[in-house]
């Protein structure tokens, strides 16, 4: 039987935290999260205790991290936004073509990420955000015929800046430090400790200073943006802290790697898998 809870409880806890703490239904201003039968694929395959293990000292170090290289905020943010829009449209065009690879590799990838449901024998993808993350894992963070899948799709844009940016992209853990005008966000990448000015209109509208996000950082014509798969993390919630803590054992290897390598893929597999199974997207 579903237990209804008073809405005023939502003022102090993240919705995911409430579900993990035993509430069957969480109702917000624009969403409803409802726990279902434990054998139903809709709730994923994650032990709630997996999101209650974190290292607070490590979290504090990420929150207080100082950059070793700062970025200057230019005066022409509005002009750069137009350049961003053009690059984003090119990126969307590439992803629409290349998303066919999901059909060929979905079951194998889902078993790696553990979002394959053995009861119904299907991949569990519950919304567009999860699909984008799942697609990103297949394209950029797993190997097909001993090479990252992105190398198999040069025929789509053999000479395009977007394709080259994806080839040289890398996993980023970004702390949002300031939300600026015209779609710009000032961030620090925890991995290389450099500040980056990224452009994304949707992220700009939904981001808050102090939040973290996991995504693939792209450099197209010296303009930084994030590819389609994004994980938002609140450093004050159990779920956010626990996923951030996963980076602790990977951070040294990620800092050594100048390009995406096997260690990067190991980290992406673990972090993306937890995100897909926890329902945090």
Please give a handful of descriptors for the protein shown.
38% helix; 10 helices; 281 residues; two-stranded antiparallel ribbon; alpha+beta; single chain; disordered N terminus; 6-stranded antiparallel β-sheet
Portion in strands: 15-25%
Question: How far apart lie the N and C ends?
Answer: 25 Å
Count up the domains.
Answer: 2
Give the overall shape: globular
SS-derived structural category: alpha+beta
Helix content: 25-40%
Rg calculated over all Cα atoms: 19 Å
Question: How many helical elements?
Answer: 10
What is the residue-averaged pLDDT?
Answer: 83
What's the total count of β strands? 12
Low-confidence stretches: 1-12, 37-43
Outline:
The chain is an alpha+beta fold and 281 residues long. Helices cover 38% and strands 19% of the residues.
Describe the structure.
The chain has helices at 15-20, 56-63, 77-98, 101-113, 128-140, 161-167, 201-206, 238-245, 251-256, 262-278; strands at residues 25-27, 32-34, 116-117, 122-123, 143-144, 147-148, 170-179, 184-189, 194-199, 212-220, 223-226, 231-233. Strand 10 (212-220) and strand 11 form a beta hairpin. With 281 residues, it is of the alpha+beta class. The strands form 4 sheets. Strands 7, 8, 9, 10, 11 and 12 form a 6-stranded antiparallel β-sheet that branches.
């Amino acid at each position: 039987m579903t237990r209804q809870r008073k809405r005023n409880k939502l003022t102090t806890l993240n919705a995911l935290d409430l579900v993990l703490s035993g509430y069957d239904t969480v109702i917000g201003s624009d969403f409803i999260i409802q726990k279902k039968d434990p054998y139903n694929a809709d709730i994923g395959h994650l032990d709630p205790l997996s999101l209650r293990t974190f290292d607070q000292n490590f979290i504090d170090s990420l929150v207080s991290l100082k950059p070793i290289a700062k970025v200057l905020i230019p005066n022409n943010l509005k002009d750069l936004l137009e350049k961003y829009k053009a690059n984003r449209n090119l990126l969307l065009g590439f992803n629409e073509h290349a998303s066919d690879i999901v059909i060929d590799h979905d079951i194998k990838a889902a078993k790696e990420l553990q979002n394959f449901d053995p009861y119904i024998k299907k991949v569990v993808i519950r919304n567009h955000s999860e699909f984008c993350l799942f697609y990103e894992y297949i394209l950029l963070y797993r190997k097909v015929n001993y090479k990252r899948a992105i190398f198999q799709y040069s025929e789509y844009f053999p000479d395009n800046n977007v394709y080259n940016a994806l080839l040289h992209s890398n996993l980023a853990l970004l702390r949002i430090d300031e939300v600026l005008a015209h779609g710009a966000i000032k961030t620090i990448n925890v991995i290389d400790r450099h500040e980056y000015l990224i452009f994304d209109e949707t992220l700009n509208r939904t981001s808050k200073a102090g939040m973290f996000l996991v995504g693939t950082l792209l450099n197209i014509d010296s303009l930084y943006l994030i590819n389609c798969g994004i994980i938002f993390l609140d450093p004050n919630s159990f779920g956010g802290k626990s996923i951030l803590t996963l980076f602790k054992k990977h951070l040294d290897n990620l800092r050594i790697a100048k390009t995406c390598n096997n260690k990067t893929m190991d980290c992406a597999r673990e972090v993306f898998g937890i995100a897909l199974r926890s329902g945090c997207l």
